[in-house]
Specification:
heterodimer; A: 114 residues; mainly beta; 7-stranded mixed beta sheet; 4-stranded antiparallel beta sheet; B: mainly beta; 6-stranded mixed beta sheet; 5-stranded antiparallel beta sheet; 11 strands
Amino acid sequence: ETGVTQTPRHLVMGMTNKKSLKCEQHLGHNAMYWYKQSAKKPLELMFVYNFKEQTENNSVPSRFSPECPNSSHLFLHLHTLQPEDSALYLCASSQEDRTNQPQHFGDGTRLSIL
Amino acid sequence: QKEVEQNSGPLSVPEGAIASLNCTYSDRVSQSFFWYRQYSGKSPELIMSIYSNGDKEDGRFTAQLNKASQYVSLLIRDSQPSDSATYLCAVNPRMDSSYKLIFGSGTRLLVRP
């Protein structure tokens, strides 16, 4: 148990579907992150939220839409995805959006686009 | 040039040996360095952080940082088969307030019984 819970663990969707990924952290942290992990590629930072405010959008296509209603919850809304979006999506949290704060990861959602 | 580089491996060592994992980074002003371990199908798990030049020891793990040469390494003493995993190096490349952690592709470690 990492203290960061992601649901669902696996998701298969068509390119025209709309779905959402959910992340919840029980660590009392104030910063939350979405990462994409593709096979044989480094983890790619997608979005950063600090105290519910988005502080980083790493040039992510608009078909990915994040939402952070409070410091404990983070969503990633998906619509009209492409096959190359198939990957493991990881959520992480840290105490704050600061350089020396370690990030703690959830187990991820394995996303497959048909 | 990749911002954080790691040899993909696999690095194969016998049980009980020292495993040495290396990472180089391109941004000279990087301040924070982390090592994560990721088992297959699992999330990355933080095992070490280091911020100053020199060595930092935690149990069987030692992180080494050399900012002048822009490398950070992880030594695992008395390697066990349970240490077999992918080890990710992560670097924060900037001194500003934007916390953009850059990861390497990871080195796969295989510890042979």
